Amino acid sequence: MILPIVAYGTPILRVVSKDITPDYPNLEQLIADMWETMYSSNGVGLAAPQVNRDIRLFVVDSQQIFINLEEDEKDKYPDGPGIKQVFINAHITALNGEEWAYNEGCLSIPKIREDIFRSEEVTIEYVDENFEPHVSTFNGISARIILHEYDHIEGKLFIDYLKPLKRKLLKSKLDDITRGKVNVDYKMSFPR
């Protein structure tokens, strides 16, 4: 089932999410719905707060980016062909490498894209959909998407990395999103 994606200004996007246990109600269905929602909105990652759940869960499919890259661009990123993975109860243990810029967007903040600097590499401990524990290191595009989605479960948004002047220049667009004055081709819910 395709779930509505909550828009900028919805309080849950600023909540630090909670770890869950294997008996979380309807978890398997929620994960399936998140994949379906992400793909139907042309996303490459989706976090539970974006579908109005305050839990430490996100899904990432960086393979979608590699599929759409030109052959000569694929060599720029060390993580090809990407990953497709579920992250539950994720906690970052290390950030490494140089910070690099990439033009990011967010399904909860449609029509706004900005260059954001993030670390080249992230080490993260998490459990998968079977609650098997992992400690893994990711780099390149996959690391960037993981860091973006991880921010969601920490109550942060990519626009928080912008300089104050840039945020001020985006204020009217952000206000329009909060008021529901944005057209998207996917299901959204707006703050009441």
From TrEMBL:
<feature type="binding site">
    <location>
        <position position="148"/>
    </location>
    <ligand>
        <name>Fe cation</name>
    </ligand>
</feature>
<feature type="active site">
    <location>
        <position position="149"/>
    </location>
</feature>
<dbReference type="GO" id="GO:0006412">
    <property type="term" value="P:translation"/>
</dbReference>
<protein>
    <recommendedName>
        <fullName>Peptide deformylase</fullName>
        <ecNumber>3.5.1.88</ecNumber>
    </recommendedName>
</protein>
<keyword id="KW-0378">Hydrolase</keyword>
<feature type="binding site">
    <location>
        <position position="152"/>
    </location>
    <ligand>
        <name>Fe cation</name>
    </ligand>
</feature>
<keyword id="KW-0479">Metal-binding</keyword>
<dbReference type="InterPro" id="IPR036821">
    <property type="entry name" value="Peptide_deformylase_sf"/>
</dbReference>
<comment type="function">
    <text>Removes the formyl group from the N-terminal Met of newly synthesized proteins. Requires at least a dipeptide for an efficient rate of reaction. N-terminal L-methionine is a prerequisite for activity but the enzyme has broad specificity at other positions.</text>
</comment>
<dbReference type="Pfam" id="PF01327">
    <property type="entry name" value="Pep_deformylase"/>
</dbReference>
<feature type="binding site">
    <location>
        <position position="106"/>
    </location>
    <ligand>
        <name>Fe cation</name>
    </ligand>
</feature>
<dbReference type="GO" id="GO:0042586">
    <property type="term" value="F:peptide deformylase activity"/>
</dbReference>
<comment type="similarity">
    <text>Belongs to the polypeptide deformylase family.</text>
</comment>
<dbReference type="GO" id="GO:0046872">
    <property type="term" value="F:metal ion binding"/>
</dbReference>
<keyword id="KW-0648">Protein biosynthesis</keyword>
<keyword id="KW-0408">Iron</keyword>
<dbReference type="InterPro" id="IPR023635">
    <property type="entry name" value="Peptide_deformylase"/>
</dbReference>
